[in-house]
Amino acid sequence: MAAFSTIAAPAAWIIQLVAARTTNRTRVLAAFLAVAVGWAARRIYKSVLPPRSLRHLPYAPALAYLRSNLRGDGFLNWKPALLDLTREDAMRKGVIKSMDETPDVFLMWLVGTWFVHLANPDDAKLLYTQHELFEKAVISDGLGFSPMFFGRNVFSVPTPEWKHHRKVVNPAFRRGWDTSFFGEPARNLIAELDAASSAGKTIDPADWMQRMTLDGLTLAAFGTSLDAIRHPNGDMVATYNAILKSLSNFRELLHPWYEQSAAGKRVKRDILRFNQFLFDLIDNKTAQLKAQGRLGQANAEDNDNDRRDLLEMMIQAAEGSDFTREDLRSNMAIFFLAGHDTTANELSFAIYLMGLHKDVQNKARAEVIQIMGKDAARRAATCDAADMVYPTSEQERAFTYLNFVIKETMRLYPSVAKLPRRKTSAPVTLSNGVKLPAGVPVTVDTYALQRDKAVYGPDADEFKPDRWASTVGKDGAVPMHPPAHNYSWAPFGGGQRICIGQQFSLVEQRVVLAMLLLRYEWDVVGNANALKGVPDMIPSDVTLHSKGIEVQLRRRSA
Ligand code: HEM
């Protein structure tokens, strides 16, 4: 109410002013102004206060979000602080009894919209598995040029249309991933890192892992890598990075004449060029398959040594169906985004955390050496980068402790910190009896869920890979799917919309980390926040992306 009266005061002042004026013209003008201010006040009032039907849930004031947005706070600066404000409100409302608890369900504000956040494993399971109740909102219909770049793809569309995409995309992902897709680009990475380490220079893992995963993705997706490791300013790498930067710049996108502005025209030109690049790849690959008489050939089943690329397998699966060339393009565009940034972030957090926790780094290295053999480890320490050893599929699958490290990293720093938005299509009752009306935007707060002390204990915020030892199955396998953890670990989402690239990412993470462990030892240095365990992050509320971490690598001796 206080917010409303503050905003409405100018309207009252204008009305008083009207009364004091005599001419009709001034009266009409002032009345018009009063209506406009009143309308704006009502809009602001409605957007800063949650809707009446949700106001009983805990929430932090919208102004606190606005302040941190305007300051450009990184994720680890704003999120824990806002969660604490939410906890205070939850205590006032009697939802929790101590600040160590996290409410199962709460609200968070994002540019004028209040989202329901689920942070309880049972409710997360409900959302993941009852997709007809929690329909995915179309995200590419968003701001600015997003639809032109992402089109309609398997990631972004609601269920009926999703089936059309998934039919063609599935066969391309349901397969083994030859470790050379990642081992080959990682050799280029190691050549560059060798140069940095011998010059005594520190590296920012976020930057290098972005380049590494872009090369891994493009090699596996098209059969040729963009070679971002060696040529970070190459034409298509730079174009793609410029597009991503523009599409995530809210200040630019909210500009009323953005599409006509110089920045808008530039990004439109970049998107048209990039789309053409993808169309050319599709057309060339189709022509090549036709010339080889392989168009329409069935996709092989899961095979670890399959070097066929994603595009080839999708063209094969699409052959003879109503899947269009634009469908192929828009899915390739989303693989670019979903397939490299997420894995890059997890890899750089794993490098960071192992740099802070040397005991974990040593234990992971000992396991890699034990599985790959002492000879391979000796060679890996001394050979040229171009001959660097990488694990076979059998070896990477045998890493147990390294999987614990990956799981624990993805628990503390889930690259997708909250699930893309859903909307309730009917009234829903959550596990604790809370009722949500139809039409409400909902998300799973993966960050809050995976750090919940009620689930993970008082050390929930600490990096302890060994906490996963008890989850190893009788066959020795480390489970990586949400039902195995009653949905308390779900960085890849769950249910029918679970990440299709999960295996791709996990194989890539194991291959790259194993190679780095064989070649180097490392420490986190420099940046004080990173050394304290609170690395700086780029301002985003969805993806966790560190900045300014400095790692000092040292070549290992044989
Ligand atoms: C650490 C790496 C990754 C993380 C944390 C991650 C996370 C996620 C999450 C949380 C979802 C679920 C979205 C939802 O339910 O709305 C998702 C879906 C998806 N991911 Fe990933 N992802 C990763 C890697 C990849 C890779 C490597 C690819 C492709 C090469 C990929 C492609 C996709 C696609 C296409 C979907 C949509 C699936 C569908 O709706 O059917 N992701 N990912």
UniProtKB/TrEMBL annotation:
Domain of life: Eukaryota
Pfam families associated with the record: p450
Keyword Iron: yes
Classification via PROSITE patterns: CYTOCHROME_P450
UniProt GO MF annotations: heme binding; iron ion binding; monooxygenase activity; oxidoreductase activity, acting on paired donors, with incorporation or reduction of molecular oxygen
UniProt entry keywords in alphabetical sequence: Heme, Iron, Metal-binding, Monooxygenase, Oxidoreductase
This protein's name: Cytochrome P450
UniProt family annotation: Belongs to the cytochrome P450 family.
InterPro entries: Cyt_P450, Cyt_P450_CS, Cyt_P450_E_grp-I, Cyt_P450_sf, Cytochrome_P450_monoxygenase
Biological source species: Allomyces macrogynus (strain ATCC 38327) (Allomyces javanicus var. macrogynus)
Gene3D superfamilies: Cytochrome P450
Cofactors that this protein relies on: heme
Chain positions recorded as heme binding sites: C499
